[in-house]
Each structure stands twice: as C-alpha cells, then as structure tokens.
Amino acid sequence: MRYRSTIGLEVHVQLDTRSKMFCACSTAYGAPPNTQVCPVCLGYPGAMPSANAEAIRLTVMAGLMLGCEIPAFSKFDRKSYFYPDMPKNYQISQYDRPLCVGGGLDVQVGGASRRIGLTRIHLEEDVAKSMHFSAASGVDFNRAGVPLMEIVTKPDIETPDEAMAFLQALKQVLLYAGVSRCDLEKGNLRCDVNCSLRPEGQAELGTKAELKNLNTFKGVYHALGYEIGRQREVLASGGRVSQETRRWDMDSGVTYPMRSKEEAHDYRYFPEPDLTEIALAREQVEAWRAALPERPQQRRERLVREYGLPEYDAGVLAADKAVGDFFEAAARLAPNAKAVSNWIMTDVLRLLSEREVPVDALPLTPEALAGLVRLVEERTINMPTAKTVFAMLVERGGDPARIVREQNLGQVSDAAALEKLVDDAIAANPKSVADYRAGKVAAAKFLVGQVMRLSKGRADPQRVGDRIEARLQKTDG
Amino acid sequence: MGELNTITVTDAVKALEARTCSSEELVRALIDAIRRRDGALGAFVAVDEAGALDQARAADRARAAGVRAPLLGVPVALKDNLNVTGQTCRCASRILEGYVAPYDATAVARLRAAGVVFLGRTNMDEFAMGSTTENSALRLTRNPLDPSCVPGGSSGGSAAAVGGNLALAALGSDTGGSIRLPAVFCGCVGLKPTYGRISRYGLVAFASSLDQIGPITKTVRDAALLNEVMSGLDPMDSTTVDRPAPSAAALDGEGLKGLRIGLPKEYFGPGLDPEVEQSVRRAVRLCEEAGATAVEISLPHTGYAIAAYYLIATAEASANLARFDGVRYGMRVAGEDPYELHCRTRAAGFGPEVKRRILLGTYVLSSGYYDAYYVSAQKVRTLIGRDFEQAFAHCDLVATPVSPTLPWKLGAKTADPLAMYLSDVFTVTSNLAGNASVALPCGLIGGLPAGIQFMAPPFAEERMLAAAHAYERARGPLGRV
User: The domain that contains B179 carries what CATH number?
Assistant: First the structure.
C-alpha cells in the first residue's frame, strides 16, 4: 500500500524588538541568567502586562508580507498550564482573534512552485528556559516574555522537502520584513510539526502526531523523515497511529511519545482581562502596508534593473537577504557589478555551504570584495592572483590592495622587465620556438606559461602572449 | 480636635499645615493606640513602627523646608494585598510567607508622592476572598463597634483600623463589595471608584476585570481626598483611563439639590432585613429634604448578578492565583518533580475558601463548560451594565442598601459559603457594571450600622461624592441617628 503524508507547521518566531512583549526588560540574547527580569516577566504578585506596540506592528508587517488579512479587532487570551518555565502558569497568547488570518507562501520544490496556505499568525510571550544540572534544575527568565509570533500553516505540506523549502522561504520573507533576526542558534525560530499519513486515494486525513523540540530546519527534515517511516510501519502492520505529542531526539534520531504530564489537555483559554482589545484602524494598517519592505521577488527585478544582472544571478542573490545585502554593498563600490556577482555566485556561496555559516560570518567584507574586483579590473593583479588573495580574505579578512602591496603580488607591468622574461623564456626553449615556426601555433602558449612561471604568476598573461607573438613573428621576418 | 488618633484626614491636613501637630506626633498617637488595642481588635497584620516614624520625621523636615504636598505627613494603612517596596505582602495567606515586595503599587507610589506615611498592613480575607475577614490565615479581626461581630470583608482589617481609630484612613480593594461592606460594618465610608480610575498595578489580583482599589475613611471628604491623589492613567495598567481625577473640591457644590435618586425595586425585596430597609428609606427621605427627588427604577437582571459574579470572579481568580507555585517566591514545599512541588505547595499554602474558588473557576473555564458558565455569565454582565445605562437615563444616582443584614456574629456563616456569598448581593453589581459606588452608614440598629450605597455612572464620582457628602452632613454624627 502506498501512503501520502500530510504535514502542518507551527512556527514560533521571536520578534526583533528591543523590549519584551509585556514589560520594558531587554530582549538581548546571552546575558547572565535572570539579569533581564522584572516583576512583570517574573509573574510577581500584582504585576500587570502592558502590550508592546512594536511587537504588534511587526506581527502585522509579517502578516502583510505573507498576504494575510488583518482583522479590525484582535485580543489577547490566557492559556493556562502549569510548568516551571511559565512565570504566571498561564501564557498570554491569542486564541480566537489572532492579529493575522489566512495568507500563504509560494515555495519552489524540485523546479515546481507550490503555494502553502496559512491559517493564522498570532502574538504571544515566550516562556523561560529550564536548565538541568546534576543535583538541581534552574530556570532562566531572561527569555520569559520575549515577543513570540506563531505562524500556523494549513496542512498543505506533503513532503519533508516541502517543509524544508517552506521554512527557508519563510525565513527569507521574515528577514526581508525585518521582523526577526531568524537566528536558529539563538532559538529565534522554533517549530512544532503535525504529521499524518493516509492511504493513497483516501480523502480523509489520518490520525496525526505532533512533533516538538524541532529547533533546526534539518531537525524538522529528519524528524519528519523518521516519523513518516514510523507511521507507515504502524499502518502497514495493521496498527493505528495514536494521536499524541512526540519529542524529537536529535542525538538518537527518533521521536518518542512525551509523558502525559508534559502534555496539557485543557488550556482553559479565556480573554486576558488585564489588557484591552487591540483595535487597528484601517488607515494604520494601510500605512503599514504602504511601508512594506521589499520582498525577494521585487529585489530580483530590481537587481536586474539597477545592476544589469542576468535574471539567473538576480534570483540566486535575492534568495538570501544577507547575500543580497552583501552583493549590493559590494556592487555599489565596485566598477563591475557582474564581476561581484560572479565572485559571490561561485566562490562565496560555495564557501558558505561548506562552512554552513551565514555570509556575515565571513571575515570577507563587501568592501574587500569590491576592492578585489577593482584590482582585477585595473589589471593590478591577474585572475589567478585574485583567487589567492580571495583565499586570504576569507580566512583572515583585510584590505586586498594592502595584501597585494605587502606581499608584492602586483602584475609585472614594467615593459623592460617583461621583455627580459620573454627573452629568457625564448632563449631557454629553442625547441618551442622551432615548433612555432614549423606551424605549431600552440607552442606559443607553452612559452607564455614559461614566462608566467618565471614571473611567479605576476605577469599579465594577455600582454605576455602579445609580446611572445610579436617576438616570434619579428625574428621570423 | 480630639485625640490625634481619632481625627479625620481632612483635619490632619489642616493641623499639619497649621503646625498644631507634627506627623511624628500623629504617627506616635496611632502606634500607641495600635499597641494598646490591636491585640484585641486584630486589624493589622504588620505595623511598620520604625519605618512609619522615619517617614513621619522626613515629612516634618520636608514641611519645615517648605515642601508642599497634598497629604504630606498623613499616615495611611494599607490592605495586605498592596505591594510596597521592602514590605511583606501576604494577602493574609500562608503561600506568600517570606515574600518581600520589590516594587510599589502605582496607587502606593502616588500616595507616597503626595506625602503619605505608610503605617502598616491590614488584615483581610485570604486573597480578598470573603465577606468577613474570617478567611485570613494570619489572625482574626473583630468589629470595633461590637467585638463579637465580624468587621465585614474582605478589607476588614482596613475598616476595623479606621473604625477603631487605629488609622485615619486605609486603602482597601473591592472586587464585589470588599471595600463597601466592611466600611459600613465598621461605621466608615468606603469608596469603590469607577473601574479604570485607579491603577491596579501592584494590587495582587483576585479578579482582574472586577478589582478596584479605593479608600476606607471616616468621612466622604477624606475618601475624595485620597481618591483624587490616586486616580489617573497609568502606563503599567492598560485598563486605566485618561481622565482628569475627580476633584475633592466638587464636594462644596450643590450636593443633593436637584438630583434624581433612583431606588431599584429589585434591591428592596425579600431577603432585606426590614430594619435595614427602614434605615435606608429614612436616609433617602433625608436626601429628599436636602433637595433630591426619589424615583423608583428597575434593574431587571439583578437576580442573576451573584451567579454571574461568582462565575467570572472565580474563573479569573483560578488563573490569577496560578502563579503562586513555590518556584520564584513565597512558600515552597519540595517535591520529586515540578508537578509535585506545585501540588504540595499549593495544597499547604492556600486556605479552604481560596481552594474552593480556584476549583470553581477551573471548572468554569474547562472545555465543555466554558460556554455554559463563563460565556453565559459574561452575557449577564453585559445585561447588568445595560440595566444601569437605562436606569441612569432616568436618574442621576442610584441608592441601595449595602448589606441585606446588619453585621453578624463571628463564625455565624463560616459553615455556609452560599449564605456568605449572598451578603454581596447589593454590591457586586457595581463591579460587574464597572461603575462608581460609595457606601456609608445610615443608622445604628442596636449599636450596629446599616448602610446606604450611592451608585453613579462610570466616571461620575464628583456628582456621587458631592451627594454622599451632602447626605453625610444631613445625617450628622452616627451616634445620634
């Protein structure tokens, strides 16, 4: 029997605000535990929330970027469950009146485009971080109350590849919108996944399992791969998939059911009486819509228009906001935008995928890449030297002009010096000279190579070629 | 002027301004009275003698240096559910044992800025859940007018302190009558301002959509003075409104002259003690003599108010009290895992009435029951609000009894929670509607006070307090009624 999988995602996105969702505490990452806390985010007796207007704006911006409807009224609700990482033992979230409704995102998978629909986007507060030590457990409340946007997809995703493609496309939109830094290592983006299987041809969806603790895109991919296989085995052997929450264990690569204590069965939602309803004026939403930042598609078009790039280059560069930003910063300083694009599309992107780092983690700066392109354009260095300098720049950074100067990598441009090298090469290779004269034109290339070797790669190959040809022909005459 | 501990806030302000007494003398007189009489009365759960004297001396020095502030050097007592930096804040519960507040409630901060000296913390029903203060885990409070009777609740300690001349004024909180009922029981004035008038930031929440902070005082003017200082928008409480604070100076206006006072027929029916009714009707006649007109009105959904109130209040309380879990502050009973720690701490930390209400509220919000209970109660709440809107089209104020009965004996209703809940029948509607109300005694019956409540549309405190003040003057000192 063949089965089809149906996947829905709940993506939690930390918003890039300076202060927390309901208090003035900093959201900065990495501070010592419990140093960015106050009576509000610690759930002290008598403390009350007041909503962060910037977080509401960012959520609406994300919604507008993703084609959501923005209802005129929205509200916060309390979601109750007891857990030590929850200061009030209820989370302020949104139940039946989220800030954004509907919308969707087009993703490219295997050359085809598919639209993944969204159910809603709502705003809530993050919980604290539990830490377990040998003898005790601790809770760091620095993260408690950080604004968290939850994006819920329709069950439109059919394969782990689509899930991965959706998450990558979503991340780019969010980065373009400037609503989140989307730094997975800092937990800016976290994902819960619903997954079910049904026999091919059956319309009704199968029983789903919810997967938690998926903190990387790869985690989502592998957990889904495992879970689909697990459910297929259960169904194929005549069993039933039970509706449950399962935890992905990255190390063992399996999902296992969570203890029932970890599962809350009844959140007892009710309207948050400490906060007033959110009424967004139409004009406000329209003003935000008018101020929407550029989307990846728009940037593709602009890169073609402004920098004269081929469609293909523009598509690759715009797919990753940071790469696009890097390109534009370099292209603005360089004499040749296409040359900058070439460097990025080949050498830089290869390096990023090898090292699995974002472009801003490289020691190479846009200024340095622009400088490198200029040195080549001005014929100060040749292409092989440029590759050598590039390798230094991505290891240690620095100014390419200075590297070339200090390591004496500039091309031999002095005519007399070049002539001497050509003399030496001709004198040392009489056989090649004879071959050339016998009609073997390729022999000239060998001589050019000899000059390049004598110059330690610093001669301009084109000029050397010209000189060799001229000399051979002269003697010939 | 009598003994310093018996004077009003208004007289204290005058005396301090005229330098006929110092703040230190006032505070010493009160501390002295507390030492002598609070052992028997049980109004306070903590008296900050050293701190209050320090603040009083600082206020006296400030005055000498030319500083002016509306309540400079006036001592006020606070209910045990208001956060004051550096003070315990127990809500009369075991579960907050050891908790020391790291911040000032906004109302406290505003009083502080107005020059108030904080005398101490007063007893209450645990987490403000009760009508007699008998649900305190800390001590028993008696009625200063009759030590065998309850002082009312939940702000019973505040009312007993003011009524017993152990404080000039005190703050309470009112979720369903918790300021007004004990104020009247102890012979004081109790003001519940409009919802949103005074910031709730720093008031330990019982039911967030119903709670309001307000003063318990000896006179309407004193209540107006404290209210004026505490009112106003607060960015820390989103439910506060940006309106000018009601001015105490409005008390010197027309008072009752020309006002139409609505008497809701539903508040004068069965269940109301005939002697209390008589006393309230006599008070209304006094108002008429002072220039008001009494009209009969109807608030048709009154009969559903208690049920709606106990559904909404317990639902909100079940979430509000979830934070008391032994993890971050207060009492902790260790367990094998967080779940066991939560369970053991809460089992040991909360008293029976608090547990009853948490269970009720949890049930009310449970899936499958939410629509039947919580949603229905909210509908009733809307209807009650509409009742008042329609009534206020026909009258300027509404006048009602405060409690259907006189103060009862200690222990008389502790075994019957439902009978206890019914004592709130005339007060919960003002919380459900979010309007303003003020309660004051209208007569002594066998030495115990009956009370009249004036209710006004939201934000009409000035009109309401001016009327209550005019009535208070017409009534004269309580003893002579």
Answer: 3.90.1300.10
